[in-house]
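Deliverable D4.2, example record:
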Amino acid sequence: MNASHLSLRLQTVADFVQPGARLADIGSDHAYLPVHLAKQGLLTKAVAGEVVRGPYENAVSEIEKEGLENVIMRA
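Output generated by the structure prediction step:
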């Protein structure tokens, strides 16, 4: 699983997102869901929230790797 190939659970959530959406992904781990949706142009803004250091660092890395810092805020 990665931002291009979501798990069935995350893909099920993604299927409900409408164009122009704002998203809050609390407990985001790797930020795969917001990154996936932002790459598809579905999000205007998103927050990827994580309180555990390792998963937070993974989310930051994923967001920066895809150049989506202007769309996805890290919290």
